[in-house]
Amino acid sequence: MIQISSAFDAGNVDVVSADKPGNIRVRIRKDTASDFFQWFYFRVTGVSGENCVIRIENAGQASYARGFKDYKACASYNRDDWFRVNTEYDDDCLTLKIKAEFDSIYFAYFAPYPLERHRGFVARCQQSPFARLEVLGQSVEGRDIDLLIVGDPLPSKKVCWAIARQHPGEAMGQFWMEGFLERLLDPNDRVAMTVRDKAVFHLVPNMNPDGSVLGNLRTNAAGANLNREWAKPSQEKSPEVFHVRNRMENTGVDFAIDVHGDECIPYNFISGADHVPSADDRMKRLLPAFKEALLIATPDFQTEHGYPKAFQANLSICASNIAESFRCLAMTLEMPFADHNDRPDVREGWSPGRSHALGADCLEAVSLILDDLR
Q: For 223-269, what is each residue's pLDDT tens digit?
């Protein structure tokens, strides 16, 4: 007997019908208190040896439906190894096809990063002699907003911030954060040693724990898009931003990177905040310098494709607000949901492993521009 379930951390799907393996019909639920939707994550059981055909019937009405063109969904039997499956999109329905090898198979928009993995990761990080863990406050539903601090704050040190998963469906941001933090905490890595000597890092691996658990694409439990809340965050609607923004006021900011995933653009790219009103020659020089450093550090970065330059002029957006408020280098890093078109991977597409590697490489890019931040 076929069963479809999504009653677990980050699960999202409503079942229309599941009478036979070749005709499974589902729909994606909307984000909490919002019209956004695109993230899906569910399990199909009772299908070993069967040719499964799963139709996501409302994919054409999703928030960024054009991103489904040339996209392949993720699947896993054990929730560790995620691979891509044959996927077709006809401007209305997203159809997933696979011959199941085992009784149970998971499908997702991107490899999920569960809250329990987050807890385990920050617990391990706090055991490093270079790190300490604080709770900045609670989310709308009362979950902790974890902050990892690496290095001792001294007047001579630069203040660097990195945050991920303002948009909870963009799970690649936490895989990036693992790579960045693991290298930063490596006692034997020369780049990490140099960076720890020169800077103190404040890192928020998951800005939106509620949305992550609820299976939302873009919003928190109050229906707020956190990356549009930075001008006037509130404890009622966007406490996640409220608490992080308040800590930034206390620490100051010399460098900030906000890590995301883009539904439509199949490349890694940076959207800079060098067009805010206060941007001077120094700020405008720093952004291309960081991009050049990242091009040197990794083959998975490029500068030809991305957002229009005017995009970051909106001061309610995280990177723009930080750049304007602190007159610093601030940016949004975007990774794809599908694949990186410059370096395609047929089996996994853009993946947790490649997100992790990009995070580690970004630390090297940071090391190359640290001395010029102020």
A: 999 999 999 999 999 999 999 999 999 999 999 999 999 999 999 99
In the numeric block, which tokens belong to residue 23?
């005709």
**Tokens of residue 7, six digits:** 């009653």
Do the beta carbons of residue 184 and residue 194 sit within 8 Å? no
Q: State percent of the chain over pLDDT 90.
A: 93
> Among residues 326, 226, 323, which one has the least CA distance to residue 275?
323
Q: Each residue of 169-209: pLDDT tens digit?
A: 999 999 999 999 999 999 999 999 999 999 999 999 999 99
* pLDDT confidence band for 312 (50 / 70 / 90): low
The answer to whether residues 334 and 305 touch, using CB atoms and an 8 Å cutoff, is no
Q: How many other C-beta atoms are found inside a 10 Å radius of the C-beta of residue 349?
A: 23
Report domain extents, the chain. 3-108, 115-372
CA distance 254 to 68: 37
3-108 belongs to which CATH class? mainly beta
Quick one: which of 361, 363, 305 has its CA closest to 334?
305
Helix (H, G, I), strand (E, B) or coil at 343: coil
CA distance 74 to 85: 6
List the catalytic residues.
Answer: 334
* Mean pLDDT estimate for the chain: 96
Q: Are 258 and 312 in contact (CB under 8 A)?
A: no
SS3 121: helix
Q: Which residue from 228, 227, 314 is spatially nearest to 275, judged by alpha carbons?
A: 314
Cβ(80)–Cβ(108) below 8 Å:
no
**What six digits make up the tokens of 218?**
């873009």
Cα 207–chain centre separation:
10
Q: Against a cut of 0.70, is the pTM above it?
A: yes
54-78 burial, b at 16+ Cβ within 10 Å, e below that, comes to bbbbbbeebbebebbeebbbbbbee
Of the options 1.10.1740.10, 1.10.260.40, 3.40.50.2300, 3.40.630.10, the CATH number for the domain spanning 115-372 = 3.40.630.10
Token pair in block for residue 175: 């895989």
